[in-house]
Design goal:
Helices cover 77% and strands 0% of the residues. It has 259 residues and is an all-alpha fold. Helix 2 runs antiparallel to helix 5, helix 5 packs antiparallel against helix 6 and helix 8 packs parallel to helix 11. The chain is flat, with a radius of gyration of 24 Å. The chain starts with 14 loop residues before the first helix and ends with a helix.
């Protein structure tokens, strides 16, 4: 009597259970699909920001004209600089606006491999991280960037030097400084994640708060937009607040784990 041929078991209908049966190729195809979807989201927002490119440019050069006057102009050194600036600006703004959507798309690829509790905390961290990033950028825009320009274009400018900037240099300064503030405001996310994997604890952070504030002060001095104490304090104060907020949130999380 011949052996019966074995047929492969059908994959479960439940998508979360099916994820466990997926091959490496199917996982890569899933990741590829999510990356394409994320790229389409960015392109959609980029199309909107390109359409309003002139209006956005007028807003972004507001601090420059506030420092040098409404008639302040830029120099064009490279032939394609204005065109590339429009593309770069629209792309950066599109990514910034779509940031939470992109993070949720990528998180959806990881979710089937984690437990429900980790899935819930992952969503909270994504929202919290986005809010912090936007908060850092907002702080730089409303309180820091104009002061940075005023210090280097007016206060420290020697006599006989034209203060006007090349258009590409201005936008490089704009994006670099705002990204520094946005990235710096991720401090609570970093500390909380280190706490979740057991490297740090709220008790240890509080016991080392003086050393931590000193480190934050040094980092603020290095990253601050100007050589004066005021500029350093604009970064030091919010980062110090975020440090203590991180310790407080870690304490709450640790209390929940102990129950």
């Amino acid at each position: 009597m011949g052996k019966k041929s074995l047929k492969p078991l059908p994959l479960p209908e439940n998508s979360e259970i099916r994820e466990k049966y997926m091959t490496l190729g199917e996982h890569l195809e899933e990741l590829r699909s999510r990356l394409i979807y994320g790229s389409l989201v960015v392109l959609a927002f980029m199309g909107i920001t390109l359409y309003f490119g002139s209006e956005i440019h007028s807003i972004l050069i507001g601090p420059y004209r506030a420092v040098l006057g409404p008639e302040a102009h830029f120099y064009q050194i490279q032939l394609m600089a204005p065109f590339l600036i429009y593309l770069k600006t629209s792309l950066m703004l599109a990514v910034l606006i779509a940031l939470p959507i992109l993070l949720f798309i990528l998180w959806g690829f990881i979710v089937p491999a984690v437990d429900p509790r980790t899935e819930k905390w992952g969503k909270i961290i994504i929202l919290f991280s986005t809010l912090l990033f936007w908060s850092g950028i907002s702080l730089c825009w409303f309180t820091v960037f104009e002061g940075f320009l005023r210090i280097f274009l007016v206060v420290l400018r020697p006599d006989g030097v034209d203060p006007y900037l090349p258009i590409d240099e201005y936008y490089d300064l704009f994006f670099n400084l705002h990204l520094v503030f946005g990235a710096s405001f991720q401090l609570p996310i970093v500390l909380i994640l280190l706490g979740r994997i057991g490297i740090l604890s709220s008790k240890y952070l509080i016991s080392k708060w003086r050393e931590s504030i000193l480190i934050i002060a040094v980092v603020s001095a290095v990253l601050s937009p100007g050589p004066d104490v005021f500029s350093m304090m604009m970064l030091l104060l919010p980062l110090s607040f975020l440090f203590f907020l991180s310790a407080f949130l870690m304490r709450i999380i640790e209390s929940g784990d102990s129950k």
